[in-house]
Amino acid sequence: xxxxxxxxxxxxxxxxxxxxxxxxxxxxxxxxxxxxxxxxxxxxxxxxxxxxxxxxxxxxxxxxxxxxxxxxxxxxxxxxxxxxxxxxxxxxxxxxxxxxxxxxxxxxxxxxxxxxxxxxxxxxxxxxxxxxxxxxxxxxxxxxxxxxxxxxxxxxxxxxxxxxxxxxxxxxxxxxxxxxxxxxxxxxxxxxxxxxxxxxxxxxxxxxxxxxxxxxxxxxxxxxxxxxxxxxxxxxxxxxxxxxxxxxxxxxxxxxxxxxxxxxxxxxxxxxxxxxxxxxxxxxxxxxxxxxxxxxxxxxxxxxxxxxxxxxxxxxxxxxxxxxxxxxxxxxxxxxxxxx
Length: 340
Ligand code: PHE
Known about the structure:
By secondary structure, the chain is α+β, with helices and mostly antiparallel strands. About 40% of the residues lie in helices and about 20% in strands. Helix 1 packs parallel to helix 4 and helix 2 (about 20-35) packs antiparallel against helix 4. The protein is rod-shaped. The chain binds phenylalanine.
């Protein structure tokens, strides 16, 4: 038995050397010193020895038990310290490590275009003036020379809040608001949202954006309008862009025109964007109808003016090569983040 004890002791020493974790140590402790452990089994086997050998052998086993317990406690301290160190190292947060940047918000293409136009027109002496989207019929239609039975007032096109209040169908009511509150010379632009009861498709939306322009002064002529719009076009698209006036009709301007710009996608050669014409329509304009001047308290015998209304979606789609207007209203950050 003494020899068995020595062998057991040597085996345990070897195992203690090769332990890799405190879990392995615990398993070893149970296997040797536990209730059903090897050393415990030896103590139980003492009864089988001749009585005179029992005390010495018992003492030997107990000494060995104490020694092994101490050796295992040592090993435990060593292993646990190593494990704690490893945990600390693996859990350390390196506060100096560069992180991927969070996704940043970006300005909406309509905002970008709006700011660009504001920049361009303020450079020419225009002042920004804003007004309500929920507008009186009086400003939206009446003062714009759209009498009660005019087809453009058809309920199909206009969102009526009640008989007298509409969601503005264009930024032109700002012309009336400006003329009624200011004295010539007037030189303003009015960017903002407008509403029409249109079905949503690639080129229509019930809400879209316009920028109104109005100049009222003595001796304002159509050539001033043309010069202003040409300067705007070249500022926005570079010196090679051309503008073209096509005769048109608006009740609040006379004469009226629609203005096309050289298609920037094909430089006027004709492509899908301009439907083969080489031109893209971007705004309506004209000389302020003298009736409108008079209705808004400006003496049409002395003053004249011009006005224009630019469609911002058209410009943004042209600028960013967007074929479907819906993309401008869906707010998909993956698309919007690409456009600067
Ligand atoms: N208000 C017109 C529209 O919405 C555009 C326009 C503005 C035309 C000013 C002429 C003068 O279509």
